[in-house]
Structure formats: C-alpha cells, structure tokens
Write a structure and sequence with these properties.
- The model is unreliable at 178-183 (pLDDT under 50).
- The chain is built from six helices and five strands, in the order βαβααβαβαβα.
- It has helices at 36-45, 57-60, 66-81, 116-124, 139-148, 162-177; strands at 6-11, 49-55, 89-93, 127-136, 152-154.
- The protein has a single domain, classed as HAD superfamily/HAD-like (Rossmann fold, 3-Layer(aba) Sandwich), CATH 3.40.50.
- With 183 residues, it is α/β, with parallel strands linked by helices.
- The termini are far apart.
- The longest helix is centred in the middle third of the chain and has 16 residues, at 66-81.
- β4, α5 (139-148) and β5 form a beta-alpha-beta unit.
Length: 183
C-alpha cells in the first residue's frame, strides 16, 4: 500500500532555518533563526512533511565537502530535536559553474533556481503538490518553486519570521479543506 500524499513544506536552509553567516558548515557555529524550531515543530504536529532544499556551492568551491554538509545537517536535527521538531529530508545541490571541484563545477538542474531538488523530493516522498509550498529568502528559491509547480513565500532575510508565515499557511490550508457552506 502506498502512503497517502501529505501536505509538504519545502524550506531553504541558510537564512531560513539557520543564520546565514556566509557558507555555514561547522556544527559549532550553527545558530538557528529565532522562529525556525517552533515553525518546524508546528509543521510536524500538523502532519506535514518538512523537506530542506539547499544550494551549497561551498562544496563546488572547495571550501568544505559533502561530509561537512551532512555533519551540519545532523547538528540542525539535534538542535531541532531539543524543541520536538525534525526535518524529514535534506536535498543538497553542491554545484556551481564557477567552482574549483571539477565534478561539482557545473550548472545543474538541482541548483536553484532549477527545480531539480524539489522534483526529486516529490518523486521520493508522498508529497501532495496541491498542498505544498516553499519558504525561502531569495528570488532563486521562489523561481525553483514556480518551476516545480508549487507556490512559494518570500521571507525577509532581516526578520525571517518563519513561524508567523507557517501559521498563516496552515490556516489557509485548513480553510481550503473545509467546504464552503456559506452560500
């Protein structure tokens, strides 16, 4: 039996979940944005899938490797667990055409604004595309979502109140599921 399609939130990483300090990759330097943990916990309680889609061009640039990215993601999970929150999956695009690591120094459809990571996640997980959204802090995040056929919400990188945005989206989602009996 196939798992039923679920509402899904795609999240950019740097600037949305963690403070973007410029190529963050060391667990000891991890700082979550102020509302990331409560927002993700709220999504988990609501039964949503939470999937991170993140460009990590520091890998292509030779600044750190994929193992460092995995360690950073493990640290994010540990920090979120302290707040009864979790990410269901991380999708990483380690590519950049100006990179110095040959195998990653390419333009790749996974690299946002390409939709590759989102489309892969939709193939791998029981995502309901009619109840999916991407929250990001850059135009490339929004463009990737549009190319994947889902809506997006631009968060201000200055205030990045993910929890407020998630609350509004969940209210809209609940409202869409309720039949309109007012006519």
């Amino acid at each position: 039996m196939t798992e039923a399609a679920r509402p899904t939130v795609f999240l950019d990483r740097d600037g949305v979940i963690n403070v973007d300090t410029g190529y963050p990759h060391r667990p000891e330097e991890l700082a979550l944005t102020p509302t990331a943990a409560p927002a993700i916990a709220r999504l988990n309680r609501a039964g949503c899938l939470v999937i991170v889609v993140t460009n990590q061009s520091g890998v292509a640039r030779g600044m750190f490797d994929l193992a460092a990215v995995d360690r950073f993601h493990a640290a994010i999970q540990e920090r979120l667990a302290e707040h009864a929150a979790r990410i269901d999956a991380f999708y990483v695009a380690p590519y950049h055409p100006a990179g110095t690591v040959a195998r990653f120094a390419i333009e790749h459809p996974d690299r946002k604004p390409g939709p590759g990571m989102i489309l892969s996640a939709m193939a791998d997980w029981p995502v309901d595309p009619n109840r999916a959204i991407l929250f990001g802090d850059k135009g490339s995040d929004l463009e990737a979502a549009v190319r994947a056929g889902i809506p997006a919400w631009l968060l201000s990188s200055d205030t990045c109140d993910l929890d407020a945005a998630v609350s509004v989206w969940l209210e809209r989602l609940a409202g869409a599921a309720v039949p309109d009996n007012t006519r």
